[in-house]
Amino acid sequence: MTAVLKLAGVTAGYAGVPAVRDLDLEVGEGEVVALLGPNGAGKTTTLLTAAGVIAPAAGTVTAYGKPLHRRVERNARAGLVLVPDTRGVFHGLTVRENLALARRADLGRVLELFPTLEPLLSRRCGLLSGGEQQTLAIAKALVSMPRILLIDELSMGLSPIAVQAILPTVRALADRLGVAVVLVEQHIDLALTVADRAVVLHHGRAVLAGSARRLRAQRHTVAEAYFGAS
Length: 230
Ligand code: ATP
Hints:
By secondary structure, this protein is an alpha/beta fold. Helices cover 36% and strands 27% of the residues. It holds the Pfam family ABC_tran.
């Protein structure tokens, strides 16, 4: 498998204080990699570095074999798209208007993947449920035809049922469109159901990595790594 996104020996942080240390992470076409770990483990920092928002203090980030551009928009235009945990939908606009704001929008294709949005097209986003808003945020990222999608805290503020409804869509993006996905997710079990591989971060370091299948079978090892008991 060729990595479309590759972080090699990445150390990154804020004002010279590392939040991620010596991290290796690879994602291939059509692959979903879950990034797990407790609060403050460095998950968001990893995504920001992978998107080119934060420049690494050491190590390299490459997309399609080339170093990231220093300007975030250039990376986004090349198909590297970050879905922030703040959702990024405009509450005063309707679902249709929000989707139209994304470049290269192909509404038909989006509705094919997210049929639950169709009856909501004329509704203002401020009136959507948390799950519907998150679906829209992912749909919005999708209409710009990403090749690499970095999704932060998909489940933030959502019920497990809402998360369960959205996760298969993420899987479909990878399977049907070949998108390479990095998924930050708090629900370990749900993440391991949808991901191909997972990496557990603790204090900025990868303390456990492996196939989702293996990690599901060794669930206690994941919990130990997660809580730093190992
Ligand atoms: P959470 O699940 O709580 O979002 P996380 O795993 O995404 O956590 P990060 O947000 O990457 O973790 O934070 C990693 C470390 O970097 C933490 O110690 C945090 O306090 C610190 N940090 C995050 N953002 C900033 C910032 N803008 N300035 C300074 N330090 C920051």
